[in-house]
Design goal:
Layout (H helix, E strand, L loop, with lengths): L7 E5 L3 H12 L3 E5 L3 H20 L5 H9 L1 E4 L2 H5 L4 E4 L5 H11 L8 E4 L6 H5 L8 E5 L9 E6 L5 H13 L3 E6 L6 H17 L5 H12 L5 H8 L1 H15 L8 H8 L15
Parallel strand pairs: 1-2, 1-4, 2-3, 4-5, 5-6, 7-8
Antiparallel strand pairs: 6-7
Helix pairs in contact: 1-2, 8-10, 8-11
Amino acid sequence: MSSSPFSTVAVIGAGTMGHGIAQVCAAAGLSVRLTDVTEAAVQKGLSAVASNLEKGVARGKVSPDDREATLGRLRGSAALAEAVEGADLVIEAIPERMELKTDLLRRLSPMLLPSAVFGTNTSSLSIAEIAAAAPAPERVVGLHFFNPVHIMSLLEVIHHAGTAPEVLTQALAFGAAIGKECITVRDMPGFATSRLGVALGMEAIRMVQDGVASAEDIDKAMVLGYRHPVGPLRLTDMVGLDVRLNIGEYLARTLGNPAFEPPALMRRMVAEGQLGQKSGQGFYRW
């Protein structure tokens, strides 16, 4: 039986992050609804969960019974109101653009239980600004997961000045219940992880741009010399160059720090559609 303070979770956005969040919540014993703007997107997300679980079974990490139980707790719907009905935790995992997140929260608010907690999976945007779109901003918290969600152990829990203490307590208990190691971070641009990670990634791209070394050798230096599990350029490919570009622009603007400014090489690659793993080509061929 799950020790989570929430029993029913709605996840909005069935892409890479959303379906991963849905999977770990369902695997932890929670009832989960996954939603997106089209039925095709929802089904693609559900199929990705099934594929992840199948790989887990093949590797002996997941039992066949657990696979079936996880899938049995997960359902999808393209109808937003249906997906969030009765949910005591709603997590958005939509694109990293402030106007999209605030518009979603405004539309969503009349559909939510008064006691529901809203978690935003933003990796850098202001939690307070997102929360301002809600009638109960004290019930909004940042829940920053990491890709791939079913493998990465970290959950960054971000509280803004108005987050209710009991909501932060619930968010941390939820993270522990789904098997994550939580860190608590105050609402500042980039939080703890993106602020450090993006600065490193941007400098690595500048090094490629300046001909210091190849992407492979820069990554090897960080993996072997600093024991990073993956190099900053491969990680940029995995996150998406377009996603990181948006984050870099936001951090450079809000912090007034040119270290976060996306290099010309990154802008050119994004313009050419070289977005990393999701497009098949970035600093690496996928």
